[in-house]
Amino acid sequence: MLNVIICGAPGCGKGTQSELIVEKYKLKHLSTGNLLRKEMAEKTELGVQAESFISKGSLVPDQMIIDMLTKAIDANEESENGIILDGFPRTVEQAEALEKMLADRNKETTVLLDLQVENRELINRLLKRGETSGRSDDNMETIKKRLQVYETKTAPVSDFYKKLGKYSGVNGMGTIDEIFGRIAEILDAKK
Is CB count within 10 Å lower at the N or C end of the chain? Predict the structure, then answer.
């Protein structure tokens, strides 16, 4: 069983690589953003609470995200190949809560894949994505803020997983296939 976390700065290719990992290793893809949107669309108790925070421009509290993730993991017990988490954990506190929740279910994280891409390349990718996708958050001012937030809040998650011996840095430069080849080497060695 593989329980994978994929992380990296905005624009590093997490979504693209997650799709390839899901396809090859038959993992259940859990994106906290997608889970949040699903809960809100279904007007579940969690979804209604989350929407009240989002509508005020506030972040959804960690415990609510953990509760949503727990619900999704429990609903996917039959996924014997494992899961891939994309977009979570974003803070050390979230990582600690995730590890506790998995341990309570006799599971553990296999590896955190950290896609490493130079800032200049990240900015170019995000600006290009903004042109093609129309995402309003892919503009220079917002990109710089998102990269700064990543460095201060999310990058320390890597140190947490290094201490657990579950960290793998991945060179995120090159073609999609080259990057996936590096990821597959790591995951094949963990199976």
Answer: C
φ/ψ of residue 30, rounded to 5: -115, 110
- 32-59: per-residue pLDDT in tens? 888 888 888 999 998 999 888 887 777 7
Name the domain count of the chain: 1
| The one catalytic residue among 24, 105, 135, 153 | 135
Instruction: Look up residue 176 and give its amino acid.
Output: I
User: How confident is the model over 149-173, as pLDDT tens digits?
Assistant: 888 888 899 999 999 999 999 999 9
pTM: 0.89
Q: Which CATH number belongs to the domain containing residue 173 in this structure?
A: 3.40.50.300
With CA atoms as reference, report the closest residue to 75 among 114, 112, 46, 111: 46
Rounded to an integer, what distance in angstroms lies between the CA atom of residue 50 and that of residue 43?
Answer: 10
- Quote the CA–CA distance of 29 and 32 in Å, as a whole number: 10
100 is catalytic: no
Task: Judge whether 145 counts as a catalytic residue.
Answer: no
Which residue in the list 129, 162, 182, 190 is annotated as catalytic?
A: 129
Do 23 and 6 touch, CB atoms closer than 8 A? Answer: no
